[in-house]
Amino acid sequence: MLASGPPRKSEWFRLLLVGPPGTGKSMTAAVLAHELSLPLFTIRLDGLISRFMGETSAKLRVIFDATKRTRAVYLFDEFDALGAERGAGNDVGEARRILNTFLLFLDETMPESLVVAATNHPGLLDRALFRRFDSVISYDLPSREQALEVLQRRLLAMDTSTVDWDEVAPHVEGFSQAELVRVAEASAKQAILQESDALDTRGIITALNERRITWND
Description:
By secondary structure, this protein is an alpha/beta fold.
């Protein structure tokens, strides 16, 4: 954890979080901020990048200057928007300059803050970026057992005594933790609309299937 007072070099942290959407990357940054009693600032890099030459680098300068003045957790979300391979076929000179600027800032800046970058697409990142982070943490989709536990925990306030979880299990493949929470909430809402606090196996499976259909819409 970050200690109070001026930081020693060993206390500077730069974390890269990689994994599918909905697996807890942004939540991790929020938990870190809470545990460290620091504010959380989220920078959406897909919205930061400008088509005007030099504007993005100027915005990055403002952000990195802020890390020196304000002790906080800085989450760079959608990090792959900034870190696409410099040698990619669709790359342009300005994109390379932006990436090089970010790398330079990371090398020169020794913040008293926690810098966290999150991406759903680690394969799009320039390899040089990985070397700039103290730790790279991977997030995976939950296993069947973990997915069922997410559903069960979210539905603790409901009566699930008649649910056959073994029958539900094959239907949870491919769901992230966040999607499973939405499925549980949809199942509970449907039961409440029917003036009941009880859920059955078919209701949960239906909610899972309906949520899966939205992925293809």
